[in-house]
Design brief:
mainly beta, seven-stranded mixed beta sheet, 1 helix
């Protein structure tokens, strides 16, 4: 199981930018799809963005596409989420996650679905609050 620690959250005004970082430890990080998820009060945890392992293809929720960018640095065991033009509706706890299921890379590639239930290793979360 991969251990993940998020950082970079904070309180910002609408229109601002933030970069979230996720540091990974453990084995087989290179083979693991990684995702960013968020959970707002009263809502289900939702997929924000995922990045695959073997091809580094990226996937985004419609609500963030064009504003957020996911990237990974396997040499440093890091994954990032660059968030631009933040909106109040982006307010949530943001989590990074990784999957230990080798089949997930193929499933993600074919489906383009970034689903919380497909991931088994989770960070503790970092709070992002966007004021209007």
């Amino acid at each position: 199981e991969v251990q993940l620690v998020e950082s970079g959250g904070g309180l910002v005004q609408a229109g601002a930018s933030l970069t979230l970082s996720c540091a990974a430890s453990g084995s087989t990080f290179d083979d693991s799809p990684v995702g960013w998820f968020r959970q707002a009060p009263g809502k289900e945890r939702e997929g924000v963005s995922c990045i695959n392992s073997y091809d580094n293809n990226t996937y985004y929720a419609d609500s963030v596409k064009g504003r957020f960018t996911i990237s990974r640095d396997n040499a440093k065991n890091m994954v990032y989420l660059q968030m631009n033009r933040l909106k109040p509706e982006d307010t949530a706890v943001y989590y990074c996650a990784a999957s230990s299921d080798a089949a997930h890379a193929i499933i993600l590639s074919l489906s383009g679905l970034c689903r919380p239930t497909d991931f088994n290793s989770w960070g503790q979360g970092t709070q992002v609050t966007v004021s209007s």
